């Protein structure tokens, strides 16, 4: 709730937007940093350097836990991992940033997962892409094209 309240205040100020009418990156980053500091002050265990310096272990557990219970197979976990990393620019974030991302994008990510599961050929082609190709991919358009064709 603290993050959403802070974000709402920032969104109300027209000076906080860039030319694309998106909240400026540095303003959003500062909001996430304030939220991270607040969460870490309430939950001291989160101050563990390993959690922020080596977030891979947390990320693996998070992805497995984010799937609906009936869908937990290795293929789905790997596919969800791929989708999340696509949206995060192939970078595993610290746990707080991962949760902020999930709050904002979980519905989109799970919808993309469902579309991919309906079209196995999309899964095959997408998971074979290299990092450079992933960065330039418009996933939404690619999925739409894959479903229509």
From TrEMBL:
Top-level taxon: Eukaryota
Protein's name in the database: 1069_t:CDS:1
Organism: Acaulospora morrowiae
